[in-house]
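Figure S4 source data
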Amino acid sequence: MKLYDLELSGNCYKVRLFAALAKIPLEMVPVDFMGGEHKRPPLTNLNPWGELPILEDGKVVLRDSQAILVYLAAQYGDENWLPRDATGLGEVMQWLSTSANELQNGPCAARLADKFGYAIDKANTLERAARILPLIEAHLAAHQWLALGRPTIADCAVMPYVALAPEGGISLEAYPNIRQWIARIKALPGFIPMPGI
């Protein structure tokens, strides 16, 4: 099973982190992102969107980190990571949506502007971050984990771009519950870091 990967990508890291925590072996295939390898064949044959990560598991080819997390958890993980009951599944999935929307367009986009020089409306990213981080902070004031009282793929999906927020000029100083949650994830058996985390 191959993961077409970029070390500095938080979206790729989500998949690497979950695979490490769940002890799912992945063959990492580094992609020359700066050289545009992801924007031409053979990678565009796997993912016409020209984005990373891409998971190739035999005949199964998936794009999008959230979709890959769901696939890996359902196919190779256990129900602790991704429950099968409707309520539990819904609770996890709402956090995957938060990761793909509010965090992608807030802290992630701010990091793209500051660290990688993307032409992004930085003020808008900061407004989005200022809305979502207090909501996550309040949730974590009452919960150790994002969903179901235990680590799930929700934590793997949300943590990277929250933890990397300082690389987009967003301080986590005002968010002690978020910082403690990040520390709990780092203490999980099998945890692996990435640059910036």
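Figure S5 source data
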Amino acid sequence: MIETTAFPKDLKAVFFDMDGVLYDSMTNHAHTWVESFKAAGIDFPAYDAYMNEGRTGPSTIIKAFELYGSRSATERDIQEIYDHKTRLMQEAPEAALMPGMQDVLRQTMAKGLKVVVVTGSKQPMLLSRLKNDYHIADDNIISGFDVKKGKPDPEPYLMALEKAGCLASQALVVENAPLGVESARAAGIFTIAVNTGILKPEVLSHAGANLVFPGTEALAEEWPGML
């Protein structure tokens, strides 16, 4: 891990996770993961959905089979479970915007900073909303469709740095999941965590978050001063 402990002085880009940061979608994700695994005979705890947030879908399924299955996941398992999850997500209640985050992104863009959304998700229900809700163009989204390794590997945030054309010391990440924090810190980027789920706050700090806020409203309150 590259240590970057100081808040960026020459800030040029801010990278935001999607689920649990921009959308209040983690309850839906946890429920659909639990139900999809249950249909495959796997008892997957809802808490693990929060702990594994940020992984690509196939990686989450492989991990779940390793921990709770009696065998390794096959390609068919991966496809069937993820297809089931996608169907359930389409039936789930529409995820609300996270409080204060439209203001956070508006203020960030108004400062002329590059904004990139970095998510392990492939769920079209939310990815398709980013343009209208947050004015994020498709070419400023790095999703599960784009990565090979995904979080907690630094790959997604290294891709974001390349897209933004800046150094790690010139960027900032806003995450809500320990694996996302690990990914960002492994890329050498100062990372703020917002605890919007059921995780204990120390989980996020132990993952390497430089700052931990109790939610997006608290972040939004401090954001103008931080910029």
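The longest strand covers residues 114-118. The domain at 26-91 is CATH 1.10.150.240 (DNA polymerase; domain 1).
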